[in-house]
Amino acid sequence: MTLQTAGIHHITAFAGDPQANVDFYAGVLGLRLVKKTINFDAPDVYHLYFGNEEGAPGTIITFFPFPGARRGRIGGGQVGFTTYVIPQGALDFWKNRLQSLGISVTEAERFGEQYLQFKDHEGLQLELVERESGAQSAWSFAGIPVDKAIKGFGGAVLYSVNPERTAYALESVLGMEKIGEYAGFARFRATGDLGNLIDLPTSAVPHGAGGAGTVHHIAWRAKDFEEHEMWRGAVSGGGFQPTPVVDRQYFNAVYFREEGGILFEIATDPPGFTVDEAPEALGETLMLPEWYESKRTQIENGLLPITVREPDWKNGK
Q1: pLDDT band, very low/low/confident/very high, at 317 (cuts 50, 70, 90)
Q2: Radius of gyration, CA atoms only, the chain
Q3: Where's the VOC domain (predicted)?
Q4: What is the dotted CATH code of the domain comprising 8-307?
Q5: Please, what's the b/e burial string for 98-130 (b: 16 or more CB within 10 A of its CB; e: otherwise)?
């Protein structure tokens, strides 16, 4: 059996101030804060998840916000642009919204599609593209109607220090199909309808440096736990050294670094974010895995408070 990922499960990045992070991704982009938890490996740091109304795979961007973190440098071995898909006809709405909030935008074209490119408050590179594919979001917040709201990921632009080997990982390990080249990019397609188009510059990109405003890893979808075990075997069979399966509470994870320097993860679709919160209450409470519950008071006292709030239009932020 040849395994094929449906596309991106989630993308995880570094950030600095947690309130500024919430203000941008919930307040500016209108995503739902679907989970407020901690970095299981560093419990004094939040792990914040933003996505559609349920945090479905293919919509989730997550952050480790370290207060006072140094800025990183975007480059090879990272996701260069995180691509979000919006409904047809919504690009002008977003151009006006971002500019009204003082966010500079650049228009770009790739593979016959028009992109609106911009950076978050810490320099993370983002872009919006209109496509028909993908279910419309049901989440409306901060003045963004559902017919203009971000659906989820359109895909990503991967910056590789060795594009030929990254292409090998995408095609031979993840089961994506190369569907074309255009203006220095190769495009690969996964089987899903969100997070399914990956663009890879065909020339090597010099190494970046991790820090706030850069992506830590990109995760690919496994449909269930049984297939996840098969994925681990496929990664090993492709010549990589996968980690053991790690329980991340809302999905199981396996990690490996491909030869272009990018940290890949394969994550299960189940169990999802309603495993410990009701759908209507997602993101409202700090959720801790059971092994940290005895330290809840200590952990809560060490974290900066955060609030989901609408942008301050009067001051352009």
Answers
A1: low
A2: 18
A3: 7-131, 152-269
A4: 3.10.180.10
A5: beebebebeeeebeeeebbbbbbbbebbbbbbb
